[in-house]
Design brief:
This protein is of the alpha+beta class. The chain has 4 domains: about 45 residues; about 180 residues, Penicillin-binding protein 2a (Domain 2), CATH 3.90.1310; about 350 residues, Beta-lactamase, CATH 3.40.710; about 100 residues, Trypsin Inhibitor V, Chain A. The protein contains 22 helices and 28 strands. Helix 3 packs antiparallel against helix 4. The radius of gyration is 39 Å and the shape is elongated.
């Protein structure tokens, strides 16, 4: 009985002990839930962060054909805390167990230090209590990080190893300097905003929208979960053509290195769309002497354009009806005084006989870039009312802000005598007419010349044509017209004739270096004196800015291109044609070789005989028939047309057969006389009541008044003939 009682007592003791132990956590739970509830709830809240921002991925920037020009690439910086609790426990047992093996692994992988140097660095940091040791001086990729995480010690996790890889997101430009200043830069890493260029202007589009995450401590671990997913930034599709951009940069750099210039710009746009296909901004670095993209001078430089502005001056005078390109101006020996201040032409030689151009046409004055010729005409017709000249420039859109997508774009400064705050003198008008005392960023000069190439329609240059998100179109940008017409068609035709002469005239061309056997280019040279002191340039005194702005192919323009070169080194005579013009020629030739493809159907086998039609002028039927009959050419259907009393005719080649095609001449419309001889052309035009002036011999290749337009009785039509 006693034994049974003892066993029961022991059992009860164990039972109540277990019951007590069981009740302890229950009691603790009730205490926490009821008595200490608010304390623990406050503590829990302090361990939770609900304001964690989840960074979105910044959008990419692409070229017009989809090649990547700017993208965000993740990288990592390797840090280590060699004094974590795990590495200091048990007399730093874990640290010294792995320090040799991890030193060997780091040395073998990165190769920048020996294993002993890595060991010494780790031991010194561990003993000195350093908590933030940079293991490797350069950033590593994600794939390199995965390799490092497999090293001895580092494969035990962050808490035990102390390894701290810090994420950095770099903005990378795969094509390096190509259009770098136009693409722009960002502040810090790619999670920050844009600081210049398209990166800045379209920052709200590229950066996307951040998400939201919550972080809290659970079981001594930080757990983070996303409540709102971030929305990645959209992508920009630019108008830049990487191939043309590469050609433009190479051509400019070659010339800058050849003449040792301080800086140079090239910008090129598509004539009919306004898409900027290439933009280069090169400036010599003072430290290395090499050229790199430092600032976007194409859009920001406020400089006097020089002789490229003469085109606008002559256009104003022609469009007002004061002159035509065929009118004469006497520039004498190349000097004229305006209010006792001398203006000289580039070929003035102190008034010696035989110098200067003497009496020339205004077309020749523009071709030869005569300061005296252009200024004389402008002062003669606008001298008493200079405000009318400025108003005409405004009317042509030269002062219109472009509002481009590039932050920091400057606006033209074309002064007006009406402005009370402007210092206007008697010499302002003549010097303004040749590109001084005005400040025009290069992109505005390009826009003006592009309007000439585009049939008088001035359009805004633009750099981004699409915004896309996940491949889907969000927004597209189209051609924006600034002026539907900058001048009359008659004025435009005269200016285009003169701009071709700048390159191709036998005697007066100032841009002979622009001539190409591969593509016909028209345009205007420019040379302006500038002060070297503005940028502290080492040569001091005066230097020059040379430029050439033109379009090609001249007969059917596809592209307009401007090159500006500043401060050629001493010893190089400044020349807009030779320096800037040769850059444009090289770009034009290589661009047309790349971009203009002929249809296979247009190609003819070398073994195929091709009948060449003889050159026969268009004109009165009797003249055409007699000319052909005299050389034994049998014309099909000639008798039938003669019986029909046909007045005007041309000869056509159909299936290797020459035939006469009748032409109708409407006395109420300006006839198309291109291809006619002078006598027939004069007869046809005078039937409309208009008069004719002609230059050259042969057949008509150009007429100043557009065929089909309404004739104005007494108006003058200028014809150009060539054999």
């Amino acid at each position: 009985m006693e034994k049974k009682t003892i066993r029961l007592l022991r059992f009860s003791l164990v039972y109540f002990l277990l019951l007590f132990l069981f009740m302890l956590p229950i009691g603790k739970m009730f205490r926490i839930q009821l008595i200490e509830r608010e304390h623990w709830m406050e503590l829990a809240k302090s361990q939770v962060r609900t304001d964690i921002e989840v960074k979105p991925n910044r959008g990419n920037i692409y070229s017009s054909d989809g090649r990547l020009m700017a993208s965000s690439i993740p990288s990592y910086v390797l840090y280590m805390d060699p004094c974590t609790d795990a590495l200091r426990a048990d007399g730093s047992k874990l640290f010294y167990e792995y320090v040799d093996s991890v030193s060997v692994a780091l040395s073998g992988y990165f190769g920048d230090k020996s294993a002993s140097e890595y060991r010494r660095m780790l031991v010194n940091a561990h003993n000195s209590g350093k908590r933030y040791l940079r293991l490797y001086p350069h950033r590593i990729s994600y794939f390199q990080l995965k390799d490092v995480l497999s090293f001895p010690l580092f494969n035990k996790g962050r808490i035990k190893s102390g390894l701290i890889p810090q994420l950095r997101t770099d903005r990378v430009k795969p094509f390096g300097s190509l259009a770098s200043r136009t693409i722009g830069n960002i502040y810090g890493d790619a999670t920050k905003g844009g600081s210049s260029g398209l990166e800045m202007y379209f920052d709200d589009v590229l950066c996307g929208e951040p998400g939201k995450a919550t972080r809290q401590m659970i079981a001594n671990k930080r757990i983070e979960y996303v409540e709102k997913e971030p929305r990645d930034g959209s992508d920009l599709i630019t108008t830049i053509d990487v191939d043309i951009q590469d050609v433009a940069e190479e051509a400019l750099l070659n010339e800058l290195n050849r003449i040792g210039a301080h800086s140079g710009y090239v910008v090129m746009m598509e004539v009919h769309t306004g898409e900027v296909k290439a933009i280069v901004n090169m400036e010599r670095s003072g430290d290395s002497g090499t050229y790199r993209e430092m600032r976007n001078g194409v859009v920001s430089d406020m400089a006097e354009p020089g002789s490229t502005f003469k085109t606008a001056s002559l256009m104003a005078a022609i469009d007002e009806g004061y002159v035509t390109i065929h009118d004469s101006v006497d520039v004498g020996t190349g000097i004229e005084y305006f209010y006792d201040v001398a203006m000289r032409d580039h070929n003035y030689r102190g008034g010696k006989p035989g110098t200067g151009y003497g009496k020339i046409t205004l077309e020749n004055a523009l071709e030869a870039s005569s300061n005296v010729g252009i200024s004389h005409v402008i002062v003669e017709h606008y001298g008493k009312h200079p405000e009318k000249f400025v108003e005409k420039l405004y009317e042509m859109g030269l002062n219109e802000p472009l509002n481009l997508e590039i932050p920091g774009t400057a606006s033209p400064n074309i002064r007006s005598p009406k402005d009370e705050n402007v210092d206007w003198s008697g010499t302002t008008l003549p010097w303004m007419s040749i590109g001084y005392e005005v400040q025009i960023p290069p992109i505005y000069t390009l826009t003006f010349y592009n309007a000439i190439a585009n049939g008088g329609k001035m359009i805004k240059p633009f750099f981004v044509k699409e915004i896309r998100r996940d491949g889907e179109l969000v927004e597209s940008f189209e051609t924006e017209v600034i002026r539907s017409k900058i001048c009359s068609q008659n004025t435009l035709e005269q200016i285009k004739i003169a701009l071709e002469g700048v390159v191709w005239h036998d005697k007066y061309a100032t841009a002979r270096a622009v001539r190409s056997s591969k593509v016909k280019i028209a345009g205007k040279t420019g040379t302006a004196q500038i002060s070297n002191g503005l940028l502290g340039y080492k040569y001091g005194g005066k230097s020059h800015q040379v430029s050439f702005c033109g379009y090609f192919p001249a007969d059917n323009p596809m592209y307009t291109c401007l090159c500006v070169i500043r401060r050629p080194a001493p010893g190089y005579a400044p020349s807009g044609g030779t320096m800037a013009g040769s850059v444009v020629r090289n770009i034009a030739e290589r661009t047309m070789a790349m971009k203009v493809l002929r249809n296979v159907e247009e190609l003819v086998s070398d073994s195929t005989f091709v009948y060449e039609m003889p050159t026969i002028k268009r004109g009165r039927y009797e003249s055409v028939w007699k000319a052909c009959h005299s050389v034994g050419l049998d014309l099909d259907n000639a008798r039938r047309l003669r019986d029909m009393d046909c007045d005007w005719a041309r000869v056509a080649l159909t299936n290797d057969t020459l035939s006469v095609v009748g032409m109708s001449v409407n006395p109420h419309a300006v006839p198309n006389v291109i291809g006619m001889g002078l006598r027939d052309a004069v007869f046809a035009i005078e039937q409309t009541g208009m008069s004719v002036r002609a230059s050259g011999v042969g057949k008509v290749i150009r007429q100043s008044v557009t065929p089909g337009s309404t004739p104005m009785k007494g108006a003058m039509v200028y014809l150009e003939l060539k054999p």
